Fold this protein.
Amino acid sequence: QLQLVESGGGLVQPGGSLRLSCAASGLLLDYYAIGWFRQAPGKEREGVSCIGSSNSGGSTNYADSVKGRFTISRDNAKNTMYLHMNSLKPEDTAVYYCAATMGNRDCSTYVQHEYNYWGQGTQVTVSS
């Protein structure tokens, strides 16, 4: 069964850090482009970051709002993706989702509906 499971969310103070994990089963993330998305209350889901498949060179892309603060990475041995989030702000509060799509394009060219597999989401709350 193909499955993505996020973890690592929680409550953190402004300026703090969290690391989100996206563990995959039934698919090898190495062959997939992976995206991290988030949805805040009352807002549409938006793309946060992505990383291309290893065959595509594994290039990364970030939304302007998180550049310099978030880092996406993969551990192929663990079949797990990560989103390292630093200098968190209250506006980063949202449910965060990882998603996967098989392909070798630059990950920034994929739109949300092209992602075939989605995790259940993990809540991140940034508040003092």
Residues 21 and 82 are 5 Å apart (CA to CA).
